[in-house]
């Protein structure tokens, strides 16, 4: 083998599991995806963060060869999504936003069906299905129809179906939306375990928390465009690193608490929808503790407080000047088109 | 965001199940790509499983043919042929055709329902022959056609229908009806992909099929009809299917009827199967 410059370039480009340039998809008048570029390293968990209707699902569907881009190009696992879509499909698995499993079949039948379609023999397919059911805590439910599954079980089955044969790249479209915290943690454990095995994962999510926990890099997407890209800490730093959330015992005292916090932190106090809650950007934990103590000293009873990461809303407000909900209202066409 | 919901952590994984998870995630190599025929059969198996889990869906397929056969035999028999038993000899191949053709609408209804579910995304992202899910479900539906047809024949035999050509003739007639239905079902799968709701598919399907089956030689001899209607009935491919089935069961078939039926079935398949596949590939 020669080590010419060309070989070097080739190996560099195959280091990327996803290479998308200027992807565009329009539905009627709606620019669902409006020039998205992505570069995802092989073996990485890459987060795509944005509200509903931002274009996340449409982007995934183009990368998984379910939709043809109107403009731009993308290579997934070294194959062009339009010209070599067969090659892409042979390398990826998709866990869609709607659970991509058959509700009228049992959990076990679903896995056997996918295993058979992927070319496993009858006996191997059954064995692989049982192995996955065991590993994902679904053994008890194996014979139940999927329409009777809980949301968490359905998600786990969905991911199990995606790894019947180990994919090079796994698309996960909002894997924890609508799940209770316990089920969400189970799904996170599975995603971490998969990533530990070296599977590249493209994770679409509405939760900064989730992207932060799992992804090595994050692209923030809004109205069909990538508006920020970087590691979770870069992203959070660009937004302001933390927020103090306070919930009062008595909502009547909120104006008083607001005055006090404005005095402490300047004018960035946010009144939440909950009439007893307010939040304020707060870079360090000590000042947060100090502020809470200050409230108590002023006779304002604090029911709960926490200092957490900025929510998607806050990220959006900082990056775009509008909140995630506003973006959502503007466009539901994506759902319709799907 | 409150502190409580981000910090609670209840891992599913005991040590034993963690080992199971690691084991299941260990690289499973990709076997060679499944062939088209095997994929079609796998999707046909999926259709059978659905029938197994929701056997109610066979009610339409079994009750309707029984009703049709009983109703038409006893209502029209006396008036048209002078006796119900004589009319049954004439009618039964027609109700066989009618019952089975009505079943084909459900192929479109089922596909329309499927398209609203996420599982279609998974099928479309698998490395398989892309129309396999469609062809597989239509092949699976053929089993329903056979069920509907068998019900009609059994009811007929109980009522006193006696096919001169015996078992062979009945089987041949049934096979011809199933082949025609296979072709026709592609029309409804196309509709299933174009229309917005399963109900729309069902209503439109029956709106098309009712006149086509009634304005045929199923119930009466066409020569009793006004001439314009007679011309329509003679041109209606369903009339040829009914004539061919009658002929096959009576042992005196006209080869041209069979030829016309096969040509129409091939034509419908040639036009609507690729159209269905194209819509399936490109929609959403």
Overall shape of chain B: it is: elongated
Cα radius of gyration of chain A in angstroms? 23 Å
Quickly give the structural class of chain A: alpha/beta
Tally of discrete structural domains of chain B: 1
Helix content of chain B: over 70%
Radius of gyration of chain B: 24 Å
Assess the beta-strand content of chain A as a share of residues.
25-35%
Average pLDDT level of chain A:
84
CATH class wording of the largest domain in chain A: Alpha Beta
Number of domains of chain A: 2
- Give unreliable regions of chain A as ranges: 1-12, 327-338
Global structural class of chain B: mainly alpha
The level of helicity of chain A is 40-55%
Give a verbal description of the structure.
The complex is a heterodimer of chains A (about 350) and B (about 280). Chain A is α/β, with parallel strands linked by helices and about 350 residues long. Chain A folds into two domains: about 220 residues, 3-Layer(aba) Sandwich (Rossmann fold); about 70 residues, 2-Layer Sandwich (Alpha-Beta Plaits). Chain A is about 40% helix and about 25% strand. Chain A is built from 14 helices and 14 strands. In chain A, strand 9 and strand 10 form a beta hairpin. Chain A is globular, with a radius of gyration of 23 Å. Chain B has one domain. Helix content of chain B is about 75%, strand content about 0%.
């Amino acid at each position: 083998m020669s080590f010419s410059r060309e070989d070097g370039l080739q190996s560099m480009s195959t280091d990327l599991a996803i290479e998308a340039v200027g992807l565009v998809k329009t539905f009627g008048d709606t620019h669902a995806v409006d020039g998205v570029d992505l570069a995802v390293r092989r073996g990485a968990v890459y987060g795509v963060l944005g509200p509903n209707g931002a274009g996340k699902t449409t982007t995934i569907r183009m990368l998984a060869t379910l939709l043809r881009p109107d403009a731009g190009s993308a290579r997934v696992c070294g194959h062009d999504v339009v010209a070599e879509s067969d090659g892409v499909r042979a390398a990826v698995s998709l866990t869609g936003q709607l659970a991509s499993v058959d509700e009228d079949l049992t959990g076990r039948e679903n896995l056997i069906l996918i295993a058979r379609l992927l070319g496993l023999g009858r006996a191997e397919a059954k064995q692989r299905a049982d192995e996955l059911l065991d590993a994902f805590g679904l053994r008890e439910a194996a014979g139940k129809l999927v329409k009777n599954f809980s949301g968490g079980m359905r998600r786990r089955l969905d991911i199990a179906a995606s790894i019947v044969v180990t994919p090079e790249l796994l698309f996960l479209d909002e894997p924890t939306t609508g799940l209770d915290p316990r089920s969400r943690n189970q799904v996170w454990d599975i995603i971490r375990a998969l990533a530990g095995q070296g599977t590249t994962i493209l994770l679409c999510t509405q939760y900064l928390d989730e992207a932060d926990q799992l992804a090595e890099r994050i692209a923030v997407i809004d109205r069909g465009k990538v508006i920020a890209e970087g590691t979770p800490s870069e992203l959070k730093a660009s937004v302001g690193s933390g927020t103090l959330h306070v919930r009062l015992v008595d909502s009547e005292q909120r104006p008083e608490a607001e005055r006090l916090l404005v005095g402490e932190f300047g004018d960035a106090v946010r009144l939440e929808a909950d009439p007893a809650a307010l939040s304020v950007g707060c870079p360090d934990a000590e000042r947060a503790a100090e502020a809470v103590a200050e409230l108590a000293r002023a006779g304002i009873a604090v029911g709960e407080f926490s200092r957490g990461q900025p929510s998607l809303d806050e990220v959006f407000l900082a990056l775009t000047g509008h909140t995630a909900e506003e973006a959502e209202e503007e466009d539901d066409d994506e759902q319709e088109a799907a | 965001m409150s502190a409580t919901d981000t910090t609670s952590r209840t891992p599913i994984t005991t040590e034993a199940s963690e080992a199971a998870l690691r084991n299941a995630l260990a690289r499973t190599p990709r076997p060679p790509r499944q062939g088209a025929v095997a994929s079609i059969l796998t999707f046909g198996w999926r259709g059978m499983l659905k029938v197994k889990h929701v056997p109610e869906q066979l009610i339409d397929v079994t009750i309707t043919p029984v009703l049709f056969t009983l109703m038409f035999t006893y209502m029209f028999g006396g008036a048209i042929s002078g006796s119900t038993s004589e009319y049954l000899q004439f009618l039964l191949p027609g109700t066989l055709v009618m019952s089975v053709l009505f079943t084909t609408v459900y192929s479109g209804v089922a596909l329309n329902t499927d398209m609203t579910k996420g599982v279609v995304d998974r099928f479309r992202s698998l490395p398989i022959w892309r129309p396999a899910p469609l062809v597989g479900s239509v092949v699976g539906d053929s089993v329903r056609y056979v069920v509907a047809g068998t019900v009609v024949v059994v009811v007929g035999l109980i009522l006193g229908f006696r096919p001169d050509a015996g078992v062979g003739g009945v089987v041949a007639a049934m096979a011809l009806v199933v082949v025609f239905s296979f072709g026709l079902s592609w029309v409804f799968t196309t509709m299933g992909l174009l229309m917005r709701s399963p109900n729309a598919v069902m209503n439109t399907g029956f709106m098309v099929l009712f006149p086509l089956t009634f304005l045929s030689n199923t119930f009466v001899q066409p020569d009793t009809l006004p001439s314009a209607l007679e011309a329509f009935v003679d041109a209606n491919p369903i009339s040829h299917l009914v004539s061919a089935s009658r002929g096959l069961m009576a042992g005196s078939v006209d080869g041209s009827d069979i030829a016309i039926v096969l040509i129409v079935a091939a034509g419908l398949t040639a036009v609507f199967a690729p159209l269905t596949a194209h819509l399936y590939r490109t929609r959403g």
